[in-house]
Every structure is written in C-alpha cells, then in structure tokens.
Amino acid sequence: MIERLETQRLVLRRPRARDWPAFLGYAMSSRAQYTGGLQWNGHAWRTFAAEIGHWEIRGYGMFIVTERGDDAAIGLAGPWYPVGWPEREIGWMMFDAAHEGRGYAGEAAGAALAHAFGPLGWDTAVSYIHPENARSRALAERLGAAIDPEAIGPGQGPALVYRHPRPEARG
Questions:
Q1: At what angle do helices 104-117 and 134-142 cross, to 10 degrees?
Q2: Phi, psi of 126 (to 5 degrees)
Q3: pLDDT for the residue numbered 170
Q4: CA-to-CA distance for 105 and 135, rounded, in angstroms?
Q5: Whole-angstrom Cα distance, residue 14 to residue 3?
Q6: Residue 52 to residue 111: CA distance in whole angstroms
Q7: Best exposed site among 32, 75, 85, 135 by fewest CB in 10 Å?
Q8: From first to last of its 171 residues, what are the pLDDT tens digits of the chain?
C-alpha cells in the first residue's frame, strides 16, 4: 500500500485524525457546495471517517494534500471508490480559497491519476463533477478528461462524468 506521493511542491499522504479540523472547516463552509454541500458537524465527521475507512477497506483512498515542508492539510485529492459508486473516481478539493489559483489541485490530481493508472492498476478513471463547478470542470479538461455522455453518475446530486484518458493516450 502506497500511503504517500510527492510532487514538486506537494506531499500527498494518507489522512490522519489530526486532519479533521481542516476538513471540518471546509465541510461547514460554502466551499463544499459542489462536494456534497454545506454539512453540519455530525455529517462532516461521518464523511471524514469514510475517508479514513476507505483506506482501511480498499487499501487506498483520497490523499491529504500538504505543501512540502508543512504538514497542514490544505485539500484532498486521489482515488475514491466507495460501495455504490458506478466507477472508480479521481477526486480533488482544496479546503481554502488561499490555495486556489496556484495549480495545486491540478498537481495533486495529476499525481493521483498517475498512481491510479500505475501502482493501483486501474484501466479507467472518471471524475464526477457538479455541472456548475466551472473550476473543477476546467481542471478535468486540462488533465485531458472529457465528458462521457454514456456514463452514469453516482446518484449524489447532479454530476457530469469526466473520463480521464490513460497515460499512454495523453502522449
């Protein structure tokens, strides 16, 4: 099980209990509008516990994103495939607007895709994105993904299904 990935500017690591306050702040803010919506603390706690549990059950999961040299959680990115999801997903979210516009989400998502298609051995990956989430849609497209009109969303509200190309198809 690979629990840590590193990029030029980021460290992606397995979530820990100490990341809970950063996630709670995100989940209880308007920033969560496209990733399940504003949550009350009990729902946010169960959502975060599922992130940790996914690692225990599947042997992989979304990574906490940190800046190199600082272990503070600034986001989540990585592979996600809970029971009931139609397909394996690569997801991403930045907890605070201060970390947007720096390319961190793209850097983390790119590393997560390489991990999914490499060590995890996935043959396909999608990202479920709310139709109004313009920033995430643009990122998916920068990563080479395109809307798959035949794919089925997870049924957790409106979602476009962006299919990511395999690394060899990206060139």
A1: 50
A2: -125, 165
A3: 66
A4: 10
A5: 5
A6: 20
A7: 135
A8: 899 999 999 999 999 999 999 999 999 988 888 887 767 788 899 999 999 999 999 999 999 999 999 999 999 999 999 999 999 999 999 999 889 899 999 999 999 999 999 999 999 999 999 999 999 999 999 999 999 999 999 987 889 999 999 887 765
Cα–Cα distance list, 83 to 37, 38, 54 (Å): 20, 23, 10
The residue written with tokens 């849609």 in the block is 137
State the Cα–Cα distance between residues 79 and 122, nearest whole angstrom.
Answer: 10
Domain architecture of the chain: domains with CATH = 4-8+11-170 (3.40.630.30)
Q: Exposed (0-12), middle (13-18) or buried (19+): which is 13, by Cβ within 10 Å?
A: middle
Amino acid at 66: T
Query: What tokens appear for 99 in the block?
Result: 């970390």
The first and second tokens of residue 96, run together, are 């605070």
